[in-house]
Amino acid sequence: MKSRECQEACKSLQELQNELMRKSMHVGSLAFAVEGQVKEKTKWFSLLRDLTRKLKIMKMEQIELSKIATDYKKCLSDFSDMSSIIQSTISREVDLHHDLRVKFIEASKDRKILYNKVLELKGNIRVFCRSRPLNADEIASAASMAIDFESAKNGELLVKSSGVSKKVFKFDAVFSPEADQAEVFQDTAPLVSSVLDGYNVCIFAYGQTGTGKTYTMVGTEEARGVNYMTLDELFRLMKNMEHQYQYEVSVSVLEVYNEQIRDLLVSGTQPGISTKRLEIRQVGDGVHHVPGLVEARVKNMSEVWEVLQAGSNARAVGATNANEYSSRSHCMHCVMVKSKNLLNGECTRSKLWLVDLAGSERIAKTEVQGERLKEAQNINRSLSALGDVISALATKSPHVPFRNSKLTHLLQDSLGGDSKALMFVQISPTDDDLSETLCSLNFACRVRGVELGPAKKQVDTTEFLKYKQMELKSKDAQVNKMDDVISNLDFRWKETNMKNKLLLEKVKELEMQLHIERKIAQQNTDSKQAGLQQQIRQQQEHATAAARPPLASRPLGLYKNISDQQGETLCKEQANGPGSFAQNNCYKSSDPLAPNTGLVKHIDMIEKENNPDLGELKILPQRTGRASSICMTARRATILSNPRRNSLMPLPNIPTSTQVTTPFLPMHPTRTNDLSNGGYQAECFPQPISEDSPRGLRSGGKKLNSILRRSLQKKIQIKPVIRQQMRKGGVNVGEKIRLSIQGRGRMARRVLLGNNGGRRPDSATLHKHIQEKEKGWNIGTGGRNLL
Ligand SMILES: Nc1ncnc2c1ncn2[C@@H]1O[C@H](COP(=O)(O)OP(=O)(O)OP(=O)(O)O)[C@@H](O)[C@H]1O
Prior knowledge:
Number of strands: 14
Low-confidence stretches: 317-322, 451-461, 551-704, 714-761, 773-787
Largest sheet: 9 strands, mixed
Radius of gyration: 65 Å
Structural class: alpha/beta
Bound molecules: adenosine-5'-triphosphate
Number of helices: 22
Shape: rod-shaped
């Protein structure tokens, strides 16, 4: 009986030893598998690193895009603000411009009116008296002076007669022989503005021959006369007002000789021999015109000068004695000015006459006959007609005899009530010419006494209408242009808005993509870590079981009792119970592992970086070696009632990480019993660990850490024992590990020899099995059962 018991105990011991050896080998294979997993995990980590890097780049891109989008939005809003501001400013400026324009037009009108009133107050016909200086002969002959210039004040002129009687004449201005051309013109210049304002103006020089009429009107090259200076002033003013007015100036030069009009700008004409008879025609209300008269268009003073010179030359050609001839004809310059007001389209046409009259003394002094008499008569007639006209104007006669002479007829426009006239009465200062001087002064006084009516502007209505039509057309064109600009701006704004929307959508899309990638990375990491955790746990359980004290060292009685009372239950629990092998094993290690560095820290950092919610999680206790790769979030898996594996033959590879981790996934405690009816697959997916629940993660992490520590400690302790035993039994550990690696991911189970569905084998079967195993070890694995 005892020997039988002993034999059974020996057998049992042998079985246990075999089992222990297998388990040890399995643990070794698992260790190898863990090593592989670590490598794989390293690979995963590198992938994760890459992903993190990409994620960072994408984040940066996203930030940049967001920044661009924000800037763009800001630009857009700024642009719309600016466009609205610009539009409002433009409309405000347009209104302001319109107001200013209206005001300016009104102010211009007011200025003209006021200016005209000033001139009217001064007199529409003004008379300036100018005396020539003594010439060389007079100085030589010590001619006595008939004019007292020293006592002349405020336009008064004192005439001495034989040094006794005195006569005072009053003029608008008196210029002594010392007055130069500029001084004389200074008082003439205001009339030029009147020409540009549209008033007709006539400036003429009257006086005895040799008193300086031509000098005052034409002047010399060094001292330009009124003609040149007036035109110069005219162009100067026109230039100043060119932004508001458009001007057109033409000049005609003619002479009236023996009551004939000669165009001095037509070459080859001789005095008195007119190739074409020029007549005066009235072409409009108070407007007189000489058809066929050359009107030289001038744009600047050089052209004016050329024209003036041409006229002077033509006048000089016809006479052997130029001065003598010039005294017998009236030289007339007609400057026609057309102006167009660009603001209101008002057009004016004005005329400026610059006349150098023939000498007035000839009639009285000379007793001529023939041609000279005819000349004298004509001069007399024309000057008499001028006197009559002025007299008629002075007496406000209903009839003014303008047509009595060519001179007055030509000057009709500028001597009427709506014009301004300036007469230079030229006198000789000597006693010898006193009678002529007195005649001239009396004539001038008579002229000065004429009160011309209010001046009227020469408005050209047809031009005005034309301008209005043009302005309307240009306004229509402007409105169309503005419409185009507005529609173009509107289109651009819409386009920009669309671009902005697209950019925003792209940003959202990128954010979504980023989120998804982050989740995928998280899931991959979690599942991989869960799988690894499961494997380690399994390894730990088996290692714990293998490290249990051998039954041989226990008292046999104890084993018997166990065998009788609890042995079966224990085996049953170990084989089929829901708890793991490690759970059923009473061996536990409490030794903490030494803290590790590097990988775990790196994982935690990456996790922390990728998932900010994990920021509160405590970093796992530092671990060493392979255990460091286990995920803290994995739970302890419940051992499932898988079919027992009776062979170490490699199992088929599990292709995906999901499949690998599936058998080790944590189960919900309440559903554990339902696995048999197909609930396994559903329950095998990891229980989602909410990111919002760091406590769960922490508790899972602590649990995992303790498991990890235990597992590694066991492995460390068991390894030498297994190796020793395997060396004793001649087992090739490397071969076993290689075989076992193929079955990684499967739950390792305690294999009882001859166990058919958990039943205890009979002795024959057991013996046979041992023999087979011995063969197998010897042949296939090189291992040997130890008794
Ligand atoms: N204010 C003046 N200063 C200097 N010289 C003058 C002045 N006025 C006239 N003279 C000189 O007197 C001379 C005669 O002048 P001017 O020929 O202009 O007289 P006129 O009245 O035009 O004569 P006519 O009627 O014959 O043409 C010229 O030599 C001119 O230079």
